[in-house]
Amino acid sequence: MSLELVAGVDGSTESLAAAHWAAREAGRRRLPLRLVHAWLWQPLDLPIEQDRGTQARLAEDVLRHAESAVAEAHPDVTVTAEVVPDTPVAALLGVQERAAMLVVGSRGHGPLTGFLLGSYGQQIIAGAERPVVAVRSRDAADAGASADAADAGEVVVGQLGTPEDSAPALRFAFETAAARGAALRAVRAWSLPPLYAYSPGSLRLADEAGGLEPFEEKALREALAPWRERHPEVRVIEHVEIGSAGQVLLSASTSASLLVVGRRARRGALGPRIGSVAHAALHHAHCPVAVVPHD
C-alpha cells in the first residue's frame, strides 16, 4: 500500500502553515501530499436563509486556496485535495489508513495554554492510529518554502519506558532525522525513586550498572541500538537527565526543529487520552510536535 502525508486545512493561518510543513516533509520523504477540508451540511435551527450550495462553494474555495498556495510553493510535491463530508475529527481519522502521518495546525503557546491546541486537534491526536504532527504558525514567512531553515535543527525524541514502548517514536524520529540530514537528540528523563519503590531485583540491576544514572544511560543505549543500526547515517546525541519527563523534554527541545513524543494507544475509561508528557509538549514546545501512538 502506497503511503501519503495528510494535512487538514480549514482556512486558518495555522492550517496553511501545517500544510506547508507537510509539503516540505513530503518532499523529503518523496511522498504525495493530500489536503483534506472537512465540511458537513448542518443547517441551523434559526429563522434565517441558509443556502447549502453557497456554503459548499465556500468550503471548496477554502480547499482550493490552500491547494494553490502549497502547489506553487512546493512544485516538486504531488498535491491532491478533497472536501470530506464529515466533522473535522472524523474526516481526518477516516483517511488515516494510507497516511504516513497526519498534520494539523496549532495556535501556539500563550497565557491560556490549556486551550490553544483546540478540541479538534486534541481529539485527532488522542484517537489517531498514525503519528500526528501539530504545527504552529509563528509568522507569515513560516508558511512558505523559506521555512526550510526552521527544519534544520535537531530532531528531539523522548525515550520512555522499555525499548518496546518507545520503538514507534524512535522509528519515526530516526526516519525524520534521516530524511532531513539532521542530528537526533534522544532524551531519557529519570527521577529518584521513593523509599522502597524499586524492587530488590531493580536495585540489583542498578547496582550492577554502577548506580541509577548509569542504569538509565544503559537503558537508553539499549533502546537506541536497533535504530542506530538501521540508520547509521544519523548522528545521535544521548541525553539523560534527572527531572520530570515533560520538563526535561521541553528544555532539551528549545532549539529543535521537531519534538517527538509517544502516547499509549489504549483507550481509558473516559475514552482515548493524550497523556501528560504529550500534553505538556503540545502546549508548551516552541517547535512542531509529533505524537506517535504505541500499544
Tell me briefly what this model is.
It is built from 9 helices and 10 strands.
Task: Kindly list the characteristics that best describe this protein.
Rossmann fold, single chain, 295 residues, 2 domains, alpha/beta, 10-stranded mixed β-sheet, 21% strand, 10 strands, 40% helix
Number of domains: 2
Q: Which band does the percent of strand residues land in?
A: 15-25%
> Largest beta sheet, briefly?
10 strands, mixed
Compute the gyration radius: what is it? Answer: 21 Å
Shape: elongated
Describe the protein.
- The protein has 295 residues and is of the alpha/beta class.
- It folds into 2 domains: 149 residues, Rossmann fold (3-Layer(aba) Sandwich), CATH 3.40.50; 144 residues, Rossmann fold, CATH 3.40.50.
- 40% of the residues lie in helices and 21% in strands.
- The protein is built from 9 helices and 10 strands.
- It has a 10-stranded mixed sheet with strand order 3-2-1-4-5-10-9-6-7-8, with helices on both faces.
- Helix 5 crosses helix 7.
- The longest helix is centred in the N-terminal third of the chain and has 22 residues.
- The two termini are 22 Å apart.
How are the SSEs ordered, and which strands pair?
Blueprint: E1 4-8, H1 13-29, E2 33-38, H2 52-73, E3 79-84, H3 88-94, E4 99-106, H4 119-127, E5 132-136, E6 155-158, H5 163-180, E7 184-190, H6 200-209, H7 212-230, E8 236-242, H8 245-252, E9 258-264, H9 276-284, E10 289-294
Parallel strand pairs: 1-2, 1-4, 2-3, 4-5, 6-7, 6-9, 7-8, 9-10
Antiparallel strand pairs: 5-10
Helix pairs in contact: 1-2, 3-4, 5-7, 6-7, 8-9
